[in-house]
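FIELD: query
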Amino acid sequence: MLELREITKDYAVAGEKVHALKGVSLCFRESEFVSVLGPSGCGKTTLLNIIGGLDHYTTGDLIIDGVSTKNYNDRDWDTYRNHRIGFVFQSYNLIPHQTILSNVELALSISGVEKSERIRRAREALDKVGLAGLYNKKPNQLSGGQMQRVAIARALVNEPDILLADEPTGALDSETSVQIMDLIKEIADRCLVIMVTHNPDLAEKYSTRIIKLLDGEVLSDSNPFEPTDSVAPEAQTDQVFADDKTEIKPETSVTETENNEKDTATEITEEHAKAKKPRTKKSKLSWLNAFKLSAKNLLSKLKRTILVCFAGSIGIIGVATVLAVSSGVQDYIEDMQNDMLSGNPVTISTTAFDLGSIMNSMSGVDTASTLHHSIRKGYVNVDLMIEFLAARGKDMSNAFISNNITNEYVSYVKAMPKEYYADITTDYAIDLSNNLYTDFDLEGFGKTQMSLTAARDMYTELLGKTQFAQYTSMISMVTENFKLTPNNIDFIMSQYEFVSDKATSKVATEADEIMIVVDDEVSLTDLLLAQFGYFSQEEFLNLAYKAVDDVAYDKELWKDKFTYDELMGKEFVWYPNNTVFAKASAELEENGTPFTYNPIVGAGWEGKKLKITAILKPKADVSYGSLSRGFYYTNALAEEILADSINSQIVQYFTEHEDKGITGMVTSNGSSGITYDYSYQYDGTVYGRKAILGKMSQLSSFAGLIPELGDYVPTTYTVTKRDVGGVSTPQKISIYPKNFEIKSKVCSYLDAWNNDKKDITVDGAVIKPADREQITYTDNLAVIISMISTFIDMITVALVAFTSLSLVVSTVMIAIITYVSVMERIKEIGVIRSLGGRKRDVSALFIAETFIIGAVSGIIGIAVTYIIQGILNLIVGNAVGIYGIAALPIPTALIMIALSIGLTLISGLIPARLAAKKDPVVALRTE
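FIELD: result
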């Protein structure tokens, strides 16, 4: 039963109070057809909206089944409208982008009815109003009468107790009006129908009761009803629609309640309509249904939706592309550092550079830029050059690291867990070129067995007599000596393969074995081959002539390549110190020349013959191997040389003189140090050469490139005890980690020597922390990679920050579009509220819409990014051979999609809240 007691409704219009209803008191039967008549503005629609819970009274009370509604909250009113009220509007108020079946289902969706049950009941309702088979039609495909029938079916599908019809025939022709009125009259037999109309003829013909209003007051009531039930206390009103509580209905027996609970799936019959069903379930539009409604709305405006999503994806495309390139470059660097790891081991050297200090020294650009300007203009400012060299020399001296590598430390390193490393090599930095001899074909002398040191000096002199004299100092910088090979054969063969006969080739491991490593093009430098005697003197000079396209170049002497047999057939002989170094006379020793050096093999010399056992080249997938091209000797030979040299005269001399080495200064006044003599012939003339043994300093080599500096920078040659095999501790230890991930464990192990406060036991000896000198290892690869990664990260952050501006623009744009959508769907908001939808259901509708836009925008953005990535990789791959320069990881792609969704959700919050706050009465009146 429905009762209105002294209902008033006031509106504030233009600052004044308008009394729409003035103390209206009415009571309605459970099933009757009531028509409310009156002129426009008399309060008919206001009365209807208050009864339907769309609008709220100012004073008075609305009694529902004997329960006051004074304490109803929004949730109670929503549930009331959904379970008890059915609205039929003059303008139908159907949602245009939904099918008529979906329109009818909407009330059931808000009620939480399962999908299969919703469809069954919606179809039954449409069948009852004569629309069977038209389920998938859209409202714009129906006539006015058919649309009103859909509205009636929607109103009835939830089996309401009260049907409210506001001018249901106002927009219909007379014939259709009769059909609709006949249908409503039939409905009135099983529930309460309250119809607002301006047509008294329709009211008289179909109504069982006519109420006339005038100026907000009841003017007459043709069939009034007096209530006999008492009103439940207000304190109990929250029980009517509370969860898990039984509805208070004074006339309802327990038996009736049980029967009604069993009758929810039956057809709407008169008996069922009169039954009192519990209405305890709160109305709620599920998120799934909210998404479906939003998706259908977006699809109804497909072109606009596509444009909005594409516009929203622009920011995602920009940021994702930057991240793809950054990730691809980082992946390339990671692959490169794994590849470079074998060629850049962790090293411990007696002297090394702090790469960080060197890089910092490069920041002093004032002198350097001025120097570059002076050289570019065609002259050299010597004073400026000296200033530059002095400044850089000071910076370099600060960057030097000095380590005292003891035998205990060597043992500690070798005790490292074997699973950490592929190989550990100990290089004693022996200068084999002084003791290593081979055959050279010299002009005027024929086959001569000469040391590699003397041959290098001789070729320098030869070039000095040609137009290449200015480049002679470069020979010492670009030629290479024999190098020490790693001990682990498996480690070597994992990176290299034989190019020589595999049947006879073997990796050099014995003391009398050496091997050649070529590059991936199977080549060696001309200077290296000339230094090792593979070219005759005449062929060597012809190489120089060809390099500059000189007229003296002779094609007949040009040797393009060597066979593997020619390379491996070369024989080298190592002679001991006491053979190649002779004690000088007392007079020479007094003048600073304690030893003389024999560059040519003498009669009766006995040495160790070394044979080439293999020629190796890097495997196809190796770009940075552990061995550069050149000639390699074994650790076994190094140990023999150390054992033989320790008692040699020259080593004993170094030991007696505090191991300072012998340094000779060459000036215009003469020379001193370890000297040697030999003769050579050039262009028919024999020249005698007195040379100084030792390594030229790098500063001297640099000065040799600029003749103007010759008077300022003296030429220095040095021979040390280590050069002649007199030091039993290595100059450098190289550790080759098994992979980049495990390198951190290698570094941690080395750090423990310096940082561990506990005693360390090495070969049974206990070394206390106080007795351990600090040792600094060098990991230049990590420093360089870290610098590159930091640089890339900085660029990435800058580019992401820049491209993120487009994300902000997209967010604002979507907020505007969502607000426009709210304005377009105001009537739909009113319909949802009239069907019992909550404010948060309306809000969820637009949040779901922004979610869909954000998800589609993100997916489009990522899809376009992957297309750009493929094109970019193709272009860069064809240009430089790197096909993975852009690689957006799937987790990053998912994060970008989530970011797109998150930003659009944020942008939709304000419009969604505005939609939720819309007055349903105002929304339903909006066109």
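FIELD: remark
The CA atoms of residues 365 and 371 lie 10 Å apart.
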